């Protein structure tokens, strides 16, 4: 006869097997249509650039060296690839600011939606997503119409006599931030909403019974409870924002490169596919490590459930 | 309707649609977006009883990458002159010998035997044009036939100039401005070019493609641009002028080729011949707003293009134009570095 | 406690939410208004006109592209949400087991790579399959879209699950409910808001994709974003505003209908 321990172990094994089966379809699709083909890119990063795009099948570490070091074309000195670092930092900064902005705006919005009556909640969910059923580029152009010099904001301010000349918002960092916050807002709102929707307000009530202030309730009770949603939302905003280029180039004027522009340049006009491959794998590794560290840390300090 | 009839109907519809798609009368065109006149396509479809599909690309590099990998299902593509030799060298396109086609006699002599396709063994001219400087004369009245508008911006235009972010075109213009030859790898010249670009950039408001709308609305007062785009801007606002820079300007030409993997070769050849007909070439021009390299097409051209200074290069400026070439990979690498430095 | 003290109230939250909704719809309203603009530039008003609707309707390329976007978006959103739900169930509410971190990293991987890289990788990979099988249909686009939509559906669903304890499901099991029954009757209803949020996100993300589609598409497979990408160099016409407006009105109509039908059922 099996001991209780053995039974427990068998149950656990079966549980793990079931869990693999359950995740199999997602893993399979991702492996076939995302991760698997990336192995090609990994191989490409160690090859020689083809004359006009593509690669020559000849080993070369040049691309990986070029990710970190650059040889000056005029005095031939080797130094840290300053251009790559500048562009990387610019993208990171934009992502951080966008994440904070969407969180500040998105958290209250999600809270508002989650506290509506049960029947109307789905409607609010649709209402917040409908603007995003129009294409990204069209949405960005619509934002442009509003903030440009002849746009609505400037026209109204001029008519009201608040300003005497149009404010140049378009092609500034402010414009990029407005656009980014606009474009990425639902990616923050929806996950927070999903984890807030079943918030147990008896806990909130208990808080007030203990004479907690509104802010204390928010910080000590509500926020910890919806933390998984905030984490998910931050990931969904931060990482895609890191690869954003449509919004920055339409609203910012495209004078400065973002990470994606740099990588795209190598696959396009720059015709250096190995460098493009190496750059993107480097970015992927950095982001992946940061993500796992973030999730692990956030999980530890969070409130445990279940 | 019960499920059986529904299923049968749907099955039949499916069969009919795939049957259509597999029929001989198909032509799949892969072209730049918003570049193919629907009217001319309709005429071609009616004349030869062929169903045409049009799929867009946005850059020569994307088109080349996709066609090189294969399996695309396209019959025809329209690469620029700089890329045609690569397509030929890599065996991506077939020799359809347009030089022997019936309508070839219409091709203007200067485009009948180009360096990028000697003897026109592969390609048929679709459109050609120039790259120059567009200025809104309400904002700047001085001489504008110079790349100095972009690289040494006059005070009136500072912070109002746009540059179309085509690496090859910008490098060509900057090299001409400092007095070099296109595709130069002379470090002394390139150093001047780099310093020029880096110093010029603070005076630019943007680097983007959307010039027609922004020049029209007044967000930009000047820009580097293609001539067809400049024509559309002038038609919207007569104060906008196109200028041929005296330091030298680039010429380009897009050309219709038939892919090696094409499944509808005969239709593709018919199409190549079809667009060399003056009336059809003029129809294409009326839509994409560029010149077409077909003699005799002028009498079918729309009135606003017949003697447009953007389309017909003035005789005095003509010698300054130079067909742009594909630079060797090592040179290209230098240019990419300068470009990255500029946009970092 | 004061009579009108609402425990759900947080100062300023409603105001921020209201601002958000207004700001979200403002550009959309501008877009709709300009769709009725007679002028051919999007920056000046030339009087009311329906001409862009007319010309968009006659432009089969743009109509086809819009329908194709919608078709790929719906299929990919549904598939990715189903797969993501299964994966979320498999990776939450458990003690760490071998492969858990791997799964988490793998599922989120499509997020980490710039689109252009996935695009090029898929171009190389799918071209081989296209040549080998001779099939060049829309399946490749659906597969690619499903893959990159999975993390967007997965994260909200997972966030929802993490907040749900297992008590109810255990109780159901104790009452001899089959796992499927327990899932359908208990887990699914509780999880539904997360699933809906995931589905919406996946749909939106698929509708927006340009670069991957550009590299994967075969002849005659332009979607609205790739169609627009092709137009950028030559200027975008207000036809796009018109088609987006039509699409928007259609989706609002569908949603309204859906909402009232589901309300009646309750």
Total count of domains of chain B: 2
Q: Supply the CATH superfamily name of the largest domain in chain B.
A: Periplasmic binding protein-like II
Shape of chain C: globular
Oligomer: heterotrimer
Strand content of chain C: under 5%
- If helices are DSSP runs of H or I spanning 4 or more residues, what is the number of helices of chain C? 11
- Order of secondary-structure elements of chain C: HHHHHHHHHHH
What name does the CATH topology of the domain at 61-235 in chain C carry? Answer: MetI-like fold
The most extensive contact between chains is: A-C, 109 and 115 residues
Q: Give the rounded overall mean pLDDT of chain C.
A: 86
Supply the CATH superfamily name of the domain at 61-235 in chain C: MetI-like
Helix content of chain C: over 70%
At CATH level 2, the architecture of the largest domain in chain B is 3-Layer(aba) Sandwich
- At the third CATH level, what is the topology name of the largest domain in chain B? D-Maltodextrin-Binding Protein, domain 2
CATH class membership of the largest domain in chain B: Alpha Beta
Number of strands of chain B: 10
Mean pLDDT of chain B: 91
Based on CA atoms alone, the radius of gyration of chain B comes out at 22 Å
SS content category of chain B: alpha/beta
């Amino acid at each position: 006869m099996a001991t209780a321990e053995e039974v427990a172990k068998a149950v656990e094994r079966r549980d793990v097997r079931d869990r693999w089966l359950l995740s199999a379809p997602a893993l399979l699709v991702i492996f076939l249509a995302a991760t698997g083909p990336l192995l090609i890119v990994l191989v490409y990063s160690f090859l020689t650039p083809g004359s006009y795009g593509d690669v020559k099948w000849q080993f070369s570490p040049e691309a990986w060296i070029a990710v970190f070091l650059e040889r000056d074309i005029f005095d031939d000195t080797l130094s840290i690839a300053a251009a790559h670092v500048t562009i990387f930092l610019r993208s990171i900064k934009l992502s951080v600011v966008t994440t904070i902005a969407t969180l500040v705006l998105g958290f209250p919005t999600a809270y508002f939606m989650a506290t509506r009556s049960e029947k109307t909640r789905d409607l609010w969910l649709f209402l917040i997503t409908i603007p995003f059923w129009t294409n990204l580029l069209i949405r960005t152009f619509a934002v442009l119409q509003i903030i440009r010099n002849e746009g609505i904001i400037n026209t109204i301010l001029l008519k009201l006599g608040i300003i005497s000349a149009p404010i140049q918002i378009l092609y500034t960092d402010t414009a990029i931030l407005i656009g980014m916050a606009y474009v990425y807002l639902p990616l923050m709102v929806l996950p927070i909403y999903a984890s807030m929707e079943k918030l147990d307000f008896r806990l909130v009530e208990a808080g007030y019974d203990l004479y907690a202030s509104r802010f204390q309730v928010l910080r000590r009770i509500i926020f910890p409870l919806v933390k998984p949603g905030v984490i998910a939302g931050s990931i969904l905003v931060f990482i895609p924002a890191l690869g954003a280029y449509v919004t920055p180039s339409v609203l910012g004027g495209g004078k400065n490169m973002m990470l994606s522009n740099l990588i795209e340049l190598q696959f396009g006009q720059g015709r250096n596919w190995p460098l493009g491959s190496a750059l993107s794998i480097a970015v992927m590794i950095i982001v992946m490590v940061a993500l796992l560290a973030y999730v692990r840390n956030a999980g530890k300090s969070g409130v445990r459930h279940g | 309707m019960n499920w059986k009839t529904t299923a049968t109907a749907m099955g039949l519809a499916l069969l009919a649609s795939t049957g259509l798609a597999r029929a001989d009368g198909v032509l799949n065109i892969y072209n730049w977006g918003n570049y193919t006149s629907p009217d001319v396509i309709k005429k071609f479809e009616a004349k030869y009883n062929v169903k045409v599909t049009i799929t867009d690309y946005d850059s020569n590099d994307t088109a080349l990458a996709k066609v090189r990998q294969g399996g695309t299902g396209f019959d025809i593509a329209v690469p620029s002159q700089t890329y045609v030799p690569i397509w030929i060298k890599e065996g991506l396109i077939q020799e359809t010998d347009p030089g022997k086609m019936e309508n070839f006699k219409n091709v203007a002599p200067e485009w009948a035997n180009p360096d990028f396709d000697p003897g026109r063994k592969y390609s048929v001219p679709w459109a050609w044009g120039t790259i120059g400087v567009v200025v809104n004369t309400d904002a700047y009245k001085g001489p504008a036939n110079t790349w100095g508008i972009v690289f040494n911006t006059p005070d009136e235009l500072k912070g109002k100039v746009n540059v179309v972010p085509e690496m090859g075109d910008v490098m060509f213009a900057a090299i001409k401005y400092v007095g070099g030859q296109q595709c130069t790898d002379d470090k002394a010249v390139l150093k001047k070019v780099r310093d020029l670009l880096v110093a010029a950039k603070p005076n630019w408001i943007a680097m983007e493609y959307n010039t027609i709308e922004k020049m029209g609305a007044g967000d930009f007062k000047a820009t580097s641009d293609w001539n067809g785009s400049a024509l559309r801007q002038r038609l919207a606002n007569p104060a906008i002028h196109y200028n041929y820079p005296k330091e030298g300007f680039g010429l380009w030409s897009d050309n219709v080729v038939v892919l090696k993997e094409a499944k509808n070769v005969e239709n593709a050849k018919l199409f190549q011949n079809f667009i060399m007909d003056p009336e059809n070439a003029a129809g294409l021009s009326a839509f994409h707003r560029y010149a077409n390299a077909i003699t005799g097409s002028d009498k079918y051209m729309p009135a606003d293009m017949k003697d447009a200074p953007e389309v017909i290069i003035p005789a005095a400026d003509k010698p300054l134009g130079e067909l742009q070439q594909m630079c060797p990979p090592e040179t290209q690498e230098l240019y990419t570095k300068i470009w990255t430095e500029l946009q970092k | 406690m004061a009579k009108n003290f609402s425990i759900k109230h947080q100062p300023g939250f409603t105001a921020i939410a209201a601002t958000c909704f207004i700001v979200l719809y403002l550009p959309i309203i501008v877009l709709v208004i300009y769709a009725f603009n007679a002028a051919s530039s999007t920056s000046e008003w030339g009087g009311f006109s329906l001409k862009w609707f007319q010309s968009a309707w006659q432009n089969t390329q743009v109509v086809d592209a819009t329908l194709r976007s919608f078709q790929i978006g719906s299929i990919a959103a549904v598939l990715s949400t189903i797969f993501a739900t299964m994966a979320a169930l498999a990776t939450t509410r458990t003690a760490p087991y071998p492969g858990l971190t791997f799964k988490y990293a793998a599922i989120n991987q499509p997020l980490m790579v710039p689109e252009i890289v996935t695009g090029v990788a898929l171009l190389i990979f799918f071209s081989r399959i296209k040549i080998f099988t001779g099939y060049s249909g829309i399946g490749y686009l659906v597969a690619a879209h499903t893959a990159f939509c999975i993390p967007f559906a997965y994260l909200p669903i997972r966030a929802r699950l993490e907040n749900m304890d297992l008590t109810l499901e255990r109780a159901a099991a104790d009452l001899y409910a089959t796992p499927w029954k327990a899932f359908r009757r208990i887990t699914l209803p509780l999880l539904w808001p997360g699933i809906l949020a995931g589905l919406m996100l996946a749909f939106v993300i698929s509708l927006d994709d340009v670069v991957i589609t550009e590299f994967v598409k075969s002849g005659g497979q332009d979607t609205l974003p790739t169609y627009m990408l092709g137009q950028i160099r030559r200027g975008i016409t207000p036809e796009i505003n018109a088609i987006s407006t039509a699409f928007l009105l259609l989706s609002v109509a569908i949603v309204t209908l859906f909402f009232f039908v589901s309300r009646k059922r309750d």
